[in-house]
Amino acid sequence: MAFEKQRQRLAGVVGIPVTPFTAAGDVDAETYGRLVERLVLSGVEVVTPNGNTGEFYALEEQETRQCLEVTTKAAREASVLAGVGHDVRTAVKAAKHARASGADMVMIHQPAHPYVSRAGWIDYHRAIANEVPELGVVLYVRNPAIEGADLAHLAEVAPNVLGVKYAVPDPVRFRTVARDAGYERFVWIAGLAELSAPGYFAVGATGFTSGLVNVAPQISLDLFRRLRNRDFDGAMEVWDRIRPFEEMRAAHGNANNVSVVKDALSQLGLCRPDVRPPSRLLTAAERDQLFEILSSWGLS
């Protein structure tokens, strides 16, 4: 089967690194490389530069290129799944740069457009995937209107599409789409991170994405191993440990999704807590709450 190594690795923890900034507000390439290396040395086999935890939509084009290049150098033997998006031409240019830089896959962000037709959704992804046939392609699906039949059609016209990061908060919908698309055709990734992973694994997911893995990689990997082994009781024990952290990220409509991860890394001395608008820094009370969580994990 084509892209077999990539398919096997996507059925695991897909790490989404943060993008650290310097005091001047630029991308801190040296720290970025250390954070990626830390993920890989912990056992993470897929790293996604320019994902949402990496503040993709707050980065300039040159900065996304820089993040991708740093990642491919620091990732060692791990697979690099480069986030691309925006308009078709921009996404294609980014995908070709990812190929030239040594990435072996790209993840296409959900089209940021107020008017998305199902046929247009297929055309958008086909146009990008067909320009980089040597790369595996992962779809980032957040739109509940996308049907399994749409994915099946896309698979016919873009054979290098191999994975689906499904981020619609509805396990029943996920199961329905996966079965209608052809369950074995794609690698199905729970795209809403650790708290949603058990529900999605119960209905067919084989991997999940993670921002938490930046902070506590062994906890995320432990959860994955338990889910893979169908140890749901054990998985829910890990889930209970993770829950306060992930609930902080999800509060206020995910307003602090990235801020919590970066502040935790800051408290561990790994990078600055800075985020770009429209995200914000944590308040003193939130930082104290986060410190207690890290302490409960034995990390502070």
TrEMBL record:
<dbReference type="InterPro" id="IPR013785">
    <property type="entry name" value="Aldolase_TIM"/>
</dbReference>
<protein>
    <submittedName>
        <fullName>Dihydrodipicolinate synthase family protein</fullName>
    </submittedName>
</protein>
<dbReference type="InterPro" id="IPR002220">
    <property type="entry name" value="DapA-like"/>
</dbReference>
<dbReference type="Pfam" id="PF00701">
    <property type="entry name" value="DHDPS"/>
</dbReference>
<comment type="similarity">
    <text>Belongs to the DapA family.</text>
</comment>
<keyword id="KW-0456">Lyase</keyword>
